What does this fold into?
Amino acid sequence: MTAPRRALLAAPALLLAPRLARAQSQDWPTRPVTMLIPFVAGGPSDITGRLIAARAGAALGQPMVAENRPGANGAVAAQALARAAPDGHTLMTGSIGVFAINQALRPNLGYDALRDFAPVTLAVTTPNVLVANPQRMPATDAPGTLAWLRENGARASYSTSGVGSSDHLTMELFKLRTGTEATHVPYQGGAAAATALIAGDVQLSFQNLGTVAPHIAAGRLRAIMVTSAERHPLIPEVPTAIQAGLADFVVTSWQAVMAPAAVPAPILARLESVCREALRHPESVQRLSAIGFDVVASSAAEYRRFQEAEVARWREVVRAANIRAE
It folds into this structure.
């Protein structure tokens, strides 16, 4: 068959494709939408995902059902999302680990965080806080903490919510930037890492603000610095890392919504709209702010640019710190 003949035969299909996509989007959703959550109930992804699902489902006229599918640091749910039919009936609310750090740390994920998913919105961010056990680490500010770390070296230890977590890589970035040492002690989640710190099993930790804010208020932990660009209203007395002398040291843990890569553009646009509206609702903002989350509700394009920069950033930290996945 000649090239012109093939082009003539292909032309009708090309013309019909946009019409088919529009028809699909007009009929969508035809059944409940599943919002995958890659971790157990009660964590940041779960809280954010369920809040979005409740309001977005109401706006769509079909239930949006949150489904916890934990395992392999979020990879189980991410692989399921990558394999899901690209018809707008499956989404996922996942973390910085699932959508950025895993890509940098684990070369054999079973999914590609940039290639296999279509961005919907960057939902929320929260800074990390460098906290210390007041009985195990006597310093009360950043200069004192650096002096203590340099004196104690590898005898100092820090807890994290796991290898490759936001809190782990934040401490590794801190060590690289300050030339200090400390021994990594990973736990299964932020709550366990904070409990170990409070018990005195370790001396330090970078933890999500929402995880440690109550312990800071109660005096069980001492806050040294926060990784937000400005002081955070939940702990206004605590200086930022920049104010403490670490130039450009801004780190956030975050949650984002993704869909399978080939979802039609009209459906993606509708998903972006309803998810952003759900996050921006005053009750959503109030609830999320109370636990240390800053609502972003970005456009899909803004989130994609942010995600690409995060993958590149943490890939460099993983390389420089020679971090290996367990």
Remarks:
- Strands lie at 33-37, 64-68, 90-95, 117-132, 157-160, 183-186, 204-208, 222-226, 252-260, 294-295.
- The domain at 31-124+254-321 is CATH 3.40.190.150 (D-Maltodextrin-Binding Protein; domain 2).
- The CA atoms of residues 33 and 89 lie 4 Å apart.
